[in-house]
Amino acid sequence: MSSPVHPRRKMLQGALAVAAVAFNPLSRSWAATAEPGTLHVPDFDGQLLLDTGTRASAADDFGHIVHHAPWAVLVPGSVEDIVKVVRFARAHGLKVAGTRGIGESHSTHGQAQVEGGIVIDMSALSTIHEIGAASVWVDAGVRWNALLQATVPLGKSPPTLTDYIDLSVGGTLSVGGIGGQVFRHGLQVDNVLEMDVVTGRGELVRCSRLIHRPLFDAVRGGLGQFGIIVRARIRLVAVLPQARTYTAVYTDLPRFLADQVLLIESGRFDYVEGSVSIANGGRSFQLEAVKYFKPGAEPDDAALLAGLSYQPGTLQVADSSYYDFTNRLAPLIAFLQSSGLWEYPHPWLDMFVPGTVAASFVKQVLDQTPEAEMGGGPILLYPFRLDKLTAPFVRVPPGRHAFLFSLLRTAVPPTEENVAALVAKNQLFVEQLMQVGGRRYAIGSAPPGPGGWREHFEPLWPSFQAAKALFDPDNVLTPGQRIF
Ligand SMILES: Cc1cc2nc3c(=O)[nH]c(=O)nc-3n(C[C@H](O)[C@H](O)[C@H](O)COP(=O)(O)OP(=O)(O)OC[C@H]3O[C@@H](n4cnc5c(N)ncnc54)[C@H](O)[C@@H]3O)c2cc1C
Q1: Measured between alpha carbons, how far is 470 from 449 in angstroms, rounded to an integer?
Q2: ipTM value for the complex
Q3: Mean pLDDT, range 299-323, rounded to an integer
Q4: 17 pLDDT band (50/70/90 cuts)?
Protein backbone atom coordinates (compact mmCIF):
# COMPACT_ATOMS: atom_id res chain seq x y z
CA MET A 1 0.00 0.00 0.00
CA SER A 2 2.72 2.44 0.90
CA SER A 3 6.37 2.40 -0.08
CA PRO A 4 7.95 5.66 0.99
CA VAL A 5 11.18 6.83 -0.60
CA HIS A 6 13.64 7.86 2.12
CA PRO A 7 16.03 10.76 1.55
CA ARG A 8 19.08 8.54 2.19
CA ARG A 9 17.92 6.14 -0.52
CA LYS A 10 17.55 9.00 -2.95
CA MET A 11 21.16 9.85 -2.18
CA LEU A 12 22.21 6.25 -2.81
CA GLN A 13 20.45 6.27 -6.15
CA GLY A 14 22.31 9.43 -7.11
CA ALA A 15 25.20 9.85 -9.45
CA LEU A 16 27.87 8.71 -6.97
CA ALA A 17 26.51 5.21 -6.52
CA VAL A 18 28.47 2.52 -8.41
CA ALA A 19 26.86 -0.86 -9.04
CA ALA A 20 28.88 -4.08 -8.83
CA VAL A 21 28.61 -6.62 -11.62
CA ALA A 22 31.51 -8.91 -10.67
CA PHE A 23 33.35 -10.26 -7.62
CA ASN A 24 36.98 -11.33 -7.50
CA PRO A 25 37.24 -14.27 -5.06
CA LEU A 26 41.06 -14.04 -4.90
CA SER A 27 41.34 -10.38 -3.98
CA ARG A 28 37.87 -10.57 -2.37
CA SER A 29 36.92 -7.34 -4.06
CA TRP A 30 34.14 -6.13 -6.33
CA ALA A 31 34.36 -4.73 -9.82
CA ALA A 32 32.03 -2.51 -11.75
CA THR A 33 32.97 -4.35 -14.95
CA ALA A 34 33.41 -8.09 -15.63
CA GLU A 35 37.12 -8.95 -15.85
CA PRO A 36 39.00 -12.24 -16.24
CA GLY A 37 38.96 -14.26 -13.01
CA THR A 38 35.91 -12.51 -11.61
CA LEU A 39 32.57 -14.12 -10.79
CA HIS A 40 29.39 -12.66 -12.13
CA VAL A 41 27.30 -11.08 -9.41
CA PRO A 42 23.67 -12.27 -9.51
CA ASP A 43 21.25 -10.13 -11.50
CA PHE A 44 19.43 -8.17 -8.85
CA ASP A 45 16.09 -6.44 -9.26
CA GLY A 46 17.63 -3.73 -7.09
CA GLN A 47 21.25 -2.60 -6.93
CA LEU A 48 24.48 -3.72 -5.30
CA LEU A 49 26.36 -0.52 -4.50
CA LEU A 50 30.06 -0.26 -3.81
CA ASP A 51 30.92 3.40 -3.92
CA THR A 52 32.89 4.82 -1.02
CA GLY A 53 30.14 7.17 0.14
CA THR A 54 27.52 4.45 0.44
CA ARG A 55 29.92 2.10 2.21
CA ALA A 56 31.00 4.84 4.62
CA SER A 57 27.34 5.56 5.43
CA ALA A 58 26.83 1.87 6.19
CA ALA A 59 29.72 2.01 8.69
CA ASP A 60 27.73 4.09 11.16
CA ASP A 61 24.72 3.76 13.45
CA PHE A 62 23.00 5.62 16.28
CA GLY A 63 25.85 4.72 18.63
CA HIS A 64 28.53 6.40 16.45
CA ILE A 65 31.09 4.25 18.26
CA VAL A 66 31.81 1.31 15.95
CA HIS A 67 32.62 1.89 12.27
CA HIS A 68 32.95 -1.18 10.06
CA ALA A 69 32.64 -0.54 6.34
CA PRO A 70 31.06 -3.28 4.24
CA TRP A 71 32.32 -4.12 0.78
CA ALA A 72 28.91 -3.47 -0.69
CA VAL A 73 25.37 -2.44 0.08
CA LEU A 74 22.41 -4.23 -1.45
CA VAL A 75 19.39 -2.07 -2.09
CA PRO A 76 17.01 -4.96 -2.79
CA GLY A 77 14.32 -4.65 -5.40
CA SER A 78 12.59 -7.85 -4.27
CA VAL A 79 12.61 -10.62 -1.69
CA GLU A 80 14.28 -12.77 -4.33
CA ASP A 81 17.25 -10.34 -4.23
CA ILE A 82 17.75 -11.20 -0.56
CA VAL A 83 17.67 -14.91 -1.35
CA LYS A 84 20.24 -14.34 -4.10
CA VAL A 85 22.59 -12.24 -1.98
CA VAL A 86 22.58 -14.71 0.92
CA ARG A 87 23.27 -17.62 -1.45
CA PHE A 88 26.03 -15.66 -3.17
CA ALA A 89 27.59 -14.69 0.16
CA ARG A 90 27.39 -18.26 1.43
CA ALA A 91 29.03 -19.61 -1.70
CA HIS A 92 31.94 -17.15 -1.45
CA GLY A 93 32.51 -16.96 2.30
CA LEU A 94 31.08 -13.45 2.72
CA LYS A 95 29.00 -12.06 5.58
CA VAL A 96 25.59 -10.38 5.30
CA ALA A 97 23.32 -8.40 7.62
CA GLY A 98 20.06 -6.52 7.28
CA THR A 99 19.62 -3.02 8.61
CA ARG A 100 16.75 -0.55 8.95
CA GLY A 101 18.45 1.82 6.51
CA ILE A 102 21.98 2.62 5.50
CA GLY A 103 23.61 4.48 8.39
CA GLU A 104 20.17 4.63 10.03
CA SER A 105 20.47 1.63 12.33
CA HIS A 106 19.40 2.36 15.89
CA SER A 107 21.85 -0.17 17.24
CA THR A 108 24.58 1.48 19.29
CA HIS A 109 27.53 -0.85 18.81
CA GLY A 110 27.76 -1.90 15.18
CA GLN A 111 25.24 -4.75 15.51
CA ALA A 112 23.96 -4.14 11.95
CA GLN A 113 27.37 -3.49 10.39
CA VAL A 114 29.37 -5.95 8.29
CA GLU A 115 33.09 -5.54 7.97
CA GLY A 116 34.10 -6.71 4.51
CA GLY A 117 30.68 -8.10 3.59
CA ILE A 118 27.27 -6.96 2.42
CA VAL A 119 24.71 -4.85 4.24
CA ILE A 120 21.10 -5.06 3.06
CA ASP A 121 19.15 -1.81 3.17
CA MET A 122 15.83 -3.22 4.39
CA SER A 123 14.11 0.16 3.96
CA ALA A 124 14.03 -0.59 0.22
CA LEU A 125 11.31 -3.17 0.91
CA SER A 126 8.75 -1.30 2.98
CA THR A 127 5.30 -2.11 1.66
CA ILE A 128 2.27 -2.63 3.87
CA HIS A 129 0.66 -5.47 1.92
CA GLU A 130 -2.61 -6.13 3.67
CA ILE A 131 -4.45 -4.85 6.72
CA GLY A 132 -6.90 -7.42 8.08
CA ALA A 133 -9.30 -7.44 11.01
CA ALA A 134 -6.76 -8.81 13.47
CA SER A 135 -3.39 -8.58 11.76
CA VAL A 136 -1.30 -6.70 9.23
CA TRP A 137 1.12 -8.25 6.72
CA VAL A 138 4.14 -6.03 6.10
CA ASP A 139 7.62 -5.97 4.66
CA ALA A 140 10.30 -6.05 7.36
CA GLY A 141 11.58 -2.65 6.23
CA VAL A 142 8.32 -0.98 7.27
CA ARG A 143 8.70 1.34 10.23
CA TRP A 144 6.25 1.05 13.10
CA ASN A 145 5.32 4.69 12.58
CA ALA A 146 4.20 4.04 8.99
CA LEU A 147 2.30 0.98 10.16
CA LEU A 148 0.48 3.03 12.82
CA GLN A 149 -0.40 5.75 10.33
CA ALA A 150 -2.10 3.06 8.24
CA THR A 151 -3.90 1.20 11.04
CA VAL A 152 -4.88 3.85 13.61
CA PRO A 153 -7.44 5.50 11.27
CA LEU A 154 -9.07 2.04 11.18
CA GLY A 155 -9.18 1.92 15.00
CA LYS A 156 -6.41 -0.69 15.19
CA SER A 157 -2.86 -0.83 16.46
CA PRO A 158 -0.10 -3.32 17.16
CA PRO A 159 -0.53 -4.17 20.85
CA THR A 160 3.00 -3.29 21.99
CA LEU A 161 4.99 -0.32 20.79
CA THR A 162 8.50 0.89 21.45
CA ASP A 163 8.80 4.40 22.87
CA TYR A 164 10.29 5.58 19.60
CA ILE A 165 8.28 4.31 16.66
CA ASP A 166 10.61 5.09 13.78
CA LEU A 167 12.32 1.73 14.26
CA SER A 168 11.91 -1.03 11.66
CA VAL A 169 9.70 -4.08 12.03
CA GLY A 170 12.61 -6.38 11.12
CA GLY A 171 14.96 -4.59 13.52
CA THR A 172 12.80 -4.80 16.63
CA LEU A 173 11.61 -8.34 15.86
CA SER A 174 15.29 -9.30 15.79
CA VAL A 175 15.87 -7.94 19.31
CA GLY A 176 12.58 -8.02 21.24
CA GLY A 177 10.73 -4.70 21.14
CA ILE A 178 9.79 -3.45 24.60
CA GLY A 179 7.40 -0.70 25.66
CA GLY A 180 4.87 0.26 28.30
CA GLN A 181 2.23 -2.23 27.10
CA VAL A 182 4.44 -5.32 27.59
CA PHE A 183 2.93 -6.14 31.00
CA ARG A 184 -0.35 -6.85 29.19
CA HIS A 185 0.64 -8.01 25.70
CA GLY A 186 4.24 -9.19 25.83
CA LEU A 187 7.07 -7.87 23.66
CA GLN A 188 6.71 -7.11 19.96
CA VAL A 189 8.21 -10.55 19.25
CA ASP A 190 5.30 -12.05 21.19
CA ASN A 191 2.86 -10.35 18.84
CA VAL A 192 4.16 -11.55 15.50
CA LEU A 193 2.01 -14.31 14.05
CA GLU A 194 3.91 -15.37 10.98
CA MET A 195 7.11 -14.42 9.14
CA ASP A 196 8.82 -14.94 5.82
CA VAL A 197 12.50 -15.50 6.54
CA VAL A 198 15.53 -15.98 4.29
CA THR A 199 17.70 -18.34 6.31
CA GLY A 200 21.49 -18.38 6.29
CA ARG A 201 21.17 -21.29 3.85
CA GLY A 202 19.54 -18.89 1.40
CA GLU A 203 16.12 -20.53 1.65
CA LEU A 204 12.91 -18.50 1.83
CA VAL A 205 10.76 -20.08 4.55
CA ARG A 206 7.36 -19.09 5.93
CA CYS A 207 7.24 -19.82 9.65
CA SER A 208 4.76 -19.45 12.50
CA ARG A 209 3.67 -21.27 15.64
CA LEU A 210 2.17 -23.91 13.35
CA ILE A 211 4.74 -24.30 10.60
CA HIS A 212 8.53 -24.35 10.91
CA ARG A 213 8.17 -23.51 14.60
CA PRO A 214 11.91 -23.93 15.39
CA LEU A 215 12.76 -21.19 12.88
CA PHE A 216 9.92 -18.99 14.13
CA ASP A 217 11.19 -19.32 17.70
CA ALA A 218 14.83 -18.83 16.76
CA VAL A 219 14.32 -15.70 14.69
CA ARG A 220 12.17 -13.82 17.23
CA GLY A 221 14.78 -11.96 19.25
CA GLY A 222 17.47 -14.06 17.55
CA LEU A 223 19.72 -11.04 16.92
CA GLY A 224 19.76 -11.68 13.18
CA GLN A 225 21.69 -14.93 13.61
CA PHE A 226 19.37 -17.35 11.81
CA GLY A 227 17.67 -15.50 8.99
CA ILE A 228 16.78 -12.19 7.41
CA ILE A 229 13.15 -11.42 8.21
CA VAL A 230 11.58 -10.19 4.98
CA ARG A 231 7.88 -10.08 5.88
CA ALA A 232 5.89 -10.30 9.08
CA ARG A 233 2.27 -10.64 10.09
CA ILE A 234 1.78 -8.43 13.14
CA ARG A 235 -1.17 -8.84 15.48
CA LEU A 236 -3.57 -5.89 15.63
CA VAL A 237 -5.88 -4.96 18.48
CA ALA A 238 -8.73 -2.45 18.61
CA VAL A 239 -7.68 0.83 20.21
CA LEU A 240 -9.64 3.76 21.54
CA PRO A 241 -8.94 7.10 19.84
CA GLN A 242 -7.68 9.12 22.85
CA ALA A 243 -4.96 8.62 25.46
CA ARG A 244 -4.77 10.23 28.90
CA THR A 245 -1.23 10.40 30.29
CA TYR A 246 -0.60 10.68 34.05
CA THR A 247 2.83 11.55 35.39
CA ALA A 248 3.78 11.86 39.05
CA VAL A 249 7.02 12.07 41.01
CA TYR A 250 8.35 9.82 43.79
CA THR A 251 11.35 10.35 46.02
CA ASP A 252 11.35 6.85 47.52
CA LEU A 253 12.61 4.12 45.19
CA PRO A 254 10.99 1.06 46.86
CA ARG A 255 7.61 2.84 46.93
CA PHE A 256 7.95 3.82 43.30
CA LEU A 257 8.71 0.25 42.25
CA ALA A 258 5.93 -1.16 44.42
CA ASP A 259 3.37 1.21 42.89
CA GLN A 260 4.51 0.32 39.37
CA VAL A 261 4.08 -3.38 40.15
CA LEU A 262 0.69 -2.68 41.71
CA LEU A 263 -0.39 -0.98 38.49
CA ILE A 264 0.74 -3.73 36.15
CA GLU A 265 -0.82 -6.40 38.37
CA SER A 266 -4.14 -4.56 38.68
CA GLY A 267 -4.28 -3.75 34.97
CA ARG A 268 -5.84 -0.35 35.67
CA PHE A 269 -3.84 1.35 32.95
CA ASP A 270 -3.06 0.42 29.34
CA TYR A 271 0.57 1.48 29.56
CA VAL A 272 2.98 1.80 32.49
CA GLU A 273 6.51 3.13 32.30
CA GLY A 274 8.79 5.22 34.50
CA SER A 275 12.11 6.99 34.65
CA VAL A 276 14.79 8.22 37.02
CA SER A 277 16.04 11.79 37.26
CA ILE A 278 19.49 12.42 38.71
CA ALA A 279 19.63 16.12 37.90
CA ASN A 280 21.31 18.64 40.20
CA GLY A 281 22.64 16.06 42.63
CA GLY A 282 19.14 14.89 43.58
CA ARG A 283 17.38 11.65 42.70
CA SER A 284 13.69 11.27 41.89
CA PHE A 285 11.49 8.81 40.05
CA GLN A 286 8.72 9.61 37.61
CA LEU A 287 5.75 7.36 37.03
CA GLU A 288 4.16 7.52 33.57
CA ALA A 289 0.85 5.72 33.12
CA VAL A 290 -1.64 5.96 30.28
CA LYS A 291 -5.30 5.09 29.87
CA TYR A 292 -6.90 4.95 26.42
CA PHE A 293 -10.46 6.26 26.13
CA LYS A 294 -13.28 7.39 23.89
CA PRO A 295 -14.42 11.04 24.08
CA GLY A 296 -17.51 11.11 26.27
CA ALA A 297 -16.24 8.18 28.35
CA GLU A 298 -13.31 9.86 30.08
CA PRO A 299 -11.22 7.82 32.53
CA ASP A 300 -12.08 7.96 36.24
CA ASP A 301 -8.89 9.65 37.48
CA ALA A 302 -9.57 9.05 41.18
CA ALA A 303 -10.16 5.32 40.69
CA LEU A 304 -7.07 4.94 38.52
CA LEU A 305 -4.80 6.74 40.99
CA ALA A 306 -6.27 5.33 44.21
CA GLY A 307 -3.71 4.05 46.70
CA LEU A 308 -0.63 5.39 44.91
CA SER A 309 1.96 7.09 47.07
CA TYR A 310 3.51 9.68 44.77
CA GLN A 311 4.56 13.09 46.10
CA PRO A 312 1.51 15.34 46.60
CA GLY A 313 1.36 18.18 44.09
CA THR A 314 3.41 16.40 41.41
CA LEU A 315 0.57 14.82 39.42
CA GLN A 316 0.16 16.01 35.84
CA VAL A 317 -2.56 14.85 33.48
CA ALA A 318 -2.66 15.44 29.72
CA ASP A 319 -4.87 14.17 26.90
CA SER A 320 -3.82 13.50 23.33
CA SER A 321 -4.93 11.42 20.39
CA TYR A 322 -3.82 7.77 20.52
CA TYR A 323 -1.50 8.33 17.54
CA ASP A 324 0.11 11.42 19.10
CA PHE A 325 0.69 9.40 22.25
CA THR A 326 2.48 6.69 20.26
CA ASN A 327 4.51 9.35 18.46
CA ARG A 328 5.19 11.38 21.63
CA LEU A 329 8.98 11.32 21.20
CA ALA A 330 8.87 13.03 17.79
CA PRO A 331 9.47 16.58 19.14
CA LEU A 332 12.36 15.38 21.33
CA ILE A 333 13.96 13.50 18.44
CA ALA A 334 13.58 16.56 16.21
CA PHE A 335 15.32 18.65 18.87
CA LEU A 336 18.15 16.11 19.28
CA GLN A 337 18.64 16.03 15.53
CA SER A 338 18.56 19.80 15.03
CA SER A 339 20.86 20.44 18.01
CA GLY A 340 23.44 17.94 16.77
CA LEU A 341 23.15 15.74 19.89
CA TRP A 342 21.79 12.88 17.74
CA GLU A 343 25.26 12.68 16.17
CA TYR A 344 27.05 12.34 19.52
CA PRO A 345 28.17 8.85 20.60
CA HIS A 346 25.50 6.91 22.50
CA PRO A 347 26.99 4.15 24.65
CA TRP A 348 23.60 2.88 25.79
CA LEU A 349 23.05 0.17 28.36
CA ASP A 350 19.74 -1.70 28.67
CA MET A 351 19.23 -4.23 31.44
CA PHE A 352 16.51 -6.65 32.53
CA VAL A 353 16.65 -6.66 36.34
CA PRO A 354 14.91 -9.37 38.42
CA GLY A 355 11.91 -7.89 40.23
CA THR A 356 13.02 -9.32 43.57
CA VAL A 357 16.30 -7.37 43.62
CA ALA A 358 15.28 -4.31 41.62
CA ALA A 359 15.40 -1.81 44.49
CA SER A 360 18.88 -2.79 45.66
CA PHE A 361 20.35 -3.25 42.18
CA VAL A 362 18.98 0.05 40.85
CA LYS A 363 20.33 1.87 43.90
CA GLN A 364 23.72 0.19 43.48
CA VAL A 365 23.96 1.32 39.84
CA LEU A 366 22.69 4.84 40.52
CA ASP A 367 25.21 5.21 43.35
CA GLN A 368 27.92 4.58 40.73
CA THR A 369 26.40 6.88 38.08
CA PRO A 370 27.25 10.57 38.34
CA GLU A 371 25.03 12.89 36.33
CA ALA A 372 27.90 13.72 33.97
CA GLU A 373 28.05 10.08 32.83
CA MET A 374 24.52 10.34 31.41
CA GLY A 375 25.25 13.42 29.25
CA GLY A 376 21.63 14.49 29.69
CA GLY A 377 20.29 11.15 28.43
CA PRO A 378 17.28 9.58 30.17
CA ILE A 379 17.22 6.64 32.59
CA LEU A 380 14.25 4.34 32.06
CA LEU A 381 12.88 2.10 34.80
CA TYR A 382 9.67 0.10 34.53
CA PRO A 383 8.37 -3.40 35.20
CA PHE A 384 6.79 -6.02 32.98
CA ARG A 385 5.32 -9.45 33.52
CA LEU A 386 7.45 -12.36 32.43
CA ASP A 387 4.52 -14.73 31.89
CA LYS A 388 3.65 -12.75 28.74
CA LEU A 389 6.98 -13.57 27.06
CA THR A 390 7.20 -16.41 24.54
CA ALA A 391 10.43 -15.97 22.51
CA PRO A 392 13.08 -18.27 23.99
CA PHE A 393 16.14 -16.32 22.86
CA VAL A 394 15.05 -13.05 24.45
CA ARG A 395 16.77 -13.85 27.72
CA VAL A 396 15.17 -12.49 30.86
CA PRO A 397 15.57 -13.20 34.58
CA PRO A 398 13.41 -15.81 36.32
CA GLY A 399 10.43 -14.74 38.43
CA ARG A 400 7.10 -13.03 37.90
CA HIS A 401 8.40 -9.54 37.10
CA ALA A 402 11.47 -7.94 35.63
CA PHE A 403 12.33 -4.27 35.26
CA LEU A 404 13.75 -2.64 32.17
CA PHE A 405 16.52 -0.42 33.52
CA SER A 406 18.16 1.61 30.76
CA LEU A 407 21.00 4.11 30.97
CA LEU A 408 20.53 5.93 27.66
CA ARG A 409 23.79 7.83 27.71
CA THR A 410 25.06 10.57 25.44
CA ALA A 411 28.85 10.78 25.62
CA VAL A 412 29.68 14.37 26.54
CA PRO A 413 32.42 15.19 25.71
CA PRO A 414 32.27 12.94 22.63
CA THR A 415 35.89 11.85 22.91
CA GLU A 416 37.22 8.33 22.38
CA GLU A 417 38.47 8.26 25.99
CA ASN A 418 35.08 9.18 27.40
CA VAL A 419 33.27 6.66 25.18
CA ALA A 420 35.71 3.91 26.18
CA ALA A 421 35.24 4.73 29.87
CA LEU A 422 31.43 4.64 29.54
CA VAL A 423 31.48 1.35 27.62
CA ALA A 424 33.74 -0.10 30.34
CA LYS A 425 31.26 1.12 32.95
CA ASN A 426 28.45 -0.59 31.05
CA GLN A 427 30.41 -3.83 31.05
CA LEU A 428 30.97 -3.52 34.79
CA PHE A 429 27.23 -3.03 35.35
CA VAL A 430 26.43 -6.07 33.20
CA GLU A 431 28.79 -8.15 35.37
CA GLN A 432 26.97 -6.90 38.46
CA LEU A 433 23.64 -7.59 36.75
CA MET A 434 24.56 -11.18 35.92
CA GLN A 435 25.57 -11.73 39.55
CA VAL A 436 22.01 -10.94 40.67
CA GLY A 437 20.44 -13.10 37.96
CA GLY A 438 19.64 -10.34 35.45
CA ARG A 439 20.26 -10.21 31.71
CA ARG A 440 21.29 -7.50 29.28
CA TYR A 441 18.72 -6.40 26.69
CA ALA A 442 21.04 -7.04 23.76
CA ILE A 443 20.73 -3.76 21.87
CA GLY A 444 23.32 -1.56 23.53
CA SER A 445 27.00 -0.87 24.05
CA ALA A 446 28.31 -3.43 26.50
CA PRO A 447 30.07 -5.93 24.25
CA PRO A 448 30.39 -9.28 26.03
CA GLY A 449 33.89 -10.57 26.70
CA PRO A 450 35.00 -14.16 26.00
CA GLY A 451 32.26 -16.54 27.10
CA GLY A 452 29.89 -13.63 27.63
CA TRP A 453 27.33 -14.70 25.06
CA ARG A 454 27.38 -18.28 26.36
CA GLU A 455 26.65 -16.94 29.83
CA HIS A 456 23.93 -14.66 28.43
CA PHE A 457 22.07 -17.49 26.69
CA GLU A 458 22.53 -20.19 29.37
CA PRO A 459 20.82 -22.60 29.81
CA LEU A 460 19.79 -22.17 26.15
CA TRP A 461 23.29 -21.71 24.72
CA PRO A 462 23.33 -25.28 23.29
CA SER A 463 19.93 -24.59 21.65
CA PHE A 464 21.21 -21.29 20.28
CA GLN A 465 24.27 -23.02 18.82
CA ALA A 466 22.13 -25.85 17.41
CA ALA A 467 19.80 -23.34 15.72
CA LYS A 468 22.83 -21.61 14.21
CA ALA A 469 24.12 -24.92 12.85
CA LEU A 470 20.69 -25.67 11.40
CA PHE A 471 19.71 -22.32 9.87
CA ASP A 472 23.06 -20.62 9.19
CA PRO A 473 25.64 -23.42 9.12
CA ASP A 474 28.29 -21.33 7.35
CA ASN A 475 27.93 -18.38 9.71
CA VAL A 476 26.94 -15.92 7.01
CA LEU A 477 24.55 -13.74 8.98
CA THR A 478 24.89 -10.67 11.17
CA PRO A 479 28.53 -10.69 12.30
CA GLY A 480 28.11 -7.30 14.02
CA GLN A 481 26.54 -9.03 17.02
CA ARG A 482 29.91 -10.75 17.58
CA ILE A 483 28.33 -13.98 18.81
CA PHE A 484 29.91 -16.51 16.43
C1 LIG B 1 15.88 6.73 20.08
C2 LIG B 1 15.73 5.24 20.27
C3 LIG B 1 14.66 4.75 20.99
C4 LIG B 1 14.50 3.38 21.18
N5 LIG B 1 13.43 2.92 21.91
C6 LIG B 1 13.28 1.60 22.09
C7 LIG B 1 12.18 1.10 22.85
O8 LIG B 1 11.36 1.85 23.39
N9 LIG B 1 12.05 -0.25 22.99
C10 LIG B 1 12.93 -1.12 22.40
O11 LIG B 1 12.75 -2.33 22.52
N12 LIG B 1 13.99 -0.67 21.70
C13 LIG B 1 14.18 0.66 21.55
N14 LIG B 1 15.27 1.11 20.83
C15 LIG B 1 16.27 0.14 20.38
C16 LIG B 1 15.87 -0.57 19.09
O17 LIG B 1 14.87 -1.53 19.35
C18 LIG B 1 17.08 -1.27 18.53
O19 LIG B 1 18.02 -0.32 18.13
C20 LIG B 1 16.74 -2.22 17.41
O21 LIG B 1 17.96 -2.70 16.93
C22 LIG B 1 15.88 -1.71 16.28
O23 LIG B 1 16.49 -0.72 15.56
P24 LIG B 1 16.48 -0.68 13.96
O25 LIG B 1 15.12 -0.88 13.41
O26 LIG B 1 17.22 0.54 13.59
O27 LIG B 1 17.28 -2.02 13.58
P28 LIG B 1 18.83 -2.20 13.23
O29 LIG B 1 19.65 -1.52 14.24
O30 LIG B 1 19.09 -1.88 11.81
O31 LIG B 1 18.97 -3.78 13.40
C32 LIG B 1 19.05 -4.39 14.66
C33 LIG B 1 19.68 -5.77 14.51
O34 LIG B 1 18.81 -6.60 13.76
C35 LIG B 1 19.39 -6.95 12.51
N36 LIG B 1 18.34 -6.78 11.53
C37 LIG B 1 17.78 -5.63 11.07
N38 LIG B 1 16.79 -5.91 10.22
C39 LIG B 1 16.72 -7.24 10.14
C40 LIG B 1 15.88 -8.14 9.43
N41 LIG B 1 14.92 -7.71 8.63
N42 LIG B 1 16.08 -9.47 9.59
C43 LIG B 1 17.06 -9.93 10.41
N44 LIG B 1 17.89 -9.13 11.09
C45 LIG B 1 17.70 -7.80 10.97
C46 LIG B 1 20.57 -6.02 12.32
O47 LIG B 1 21.59 -6.60 11.54
C48 LIG B 1 21.00 -5.76 13.74
O49 LIG B 1 21.80 -6.81 14.20
C50 LIG B 1 15.45 2.48 20.64
C51 LIG B 1 16.55 2.97 19.93
C52 LIG B 1 16.69 4.35 19.75
C53 LIG B 1 17.90 4.86 19.04
Answers
A1: 25
A2: 0.99
A3: 98
A4: low
Q: Which tens digit of pLDDT belongs to each residue from 203-216?
A: 999 999 999 999 99
Q: 26 CA to middle of ligand 1, Å?
A: 34
Classify 14-124 by CATH class: alpha beta
**DSSP line for 376-422:** T--EEEEEEEGGG---TTS---SSSEEEEEEE----SS--HHHHHHH
Pocket of ligand 1 (CB under 6 A): 62, 97-100, 105-107, 111-112, 122, 140, 162-164, 167-168, 170-172, 174-179, 223-224, 228-229, 443, 478, 480-481
Question: What residue ranges do the domains of the chain occupy?
Answer: 14-124, 128-239, 242-440
Q: What are phi and psi of 371, to 5 degrees?
A: -55, -40
Summarize pLDDT for 229-281 with one digit per residue, the tens. Answer: 999 999 999 999 999 999 999 999 999 999 999 999 999 999 999 999 998 88
> Which among 6, 61, 99 is the best mutation to test ligand 1's pocket, defined by most ligand atoms within 8 Å of the CB?
99
Q: Could you give the dihedral angle defined by the CA atoms of residues 384, 387, 388 and 392, in that order, rounded to the nearest 10 degrees? A: 110
C-alpha dihedral over 430, 436, 438, 443, to 10 degrees? Answer: -10
CA distances from 91 to 23, 82, 426, 483 (A): 12, 14, 38, 21
pLDDT band at 116 (very low <50, low <70, confident <90, very high): confident
As its CATH architecture, domain 242-440 has 3-Layer(aba) Sandwich (3.40)
Mean pLDDT calculated for residue range 150-169: 98
Provide the CATH topology of domain 128-239: 3.30.465
> In this structure, are residues 105 and 99 in contact, taking their beta carbons and an 8 Å threshold?
yes
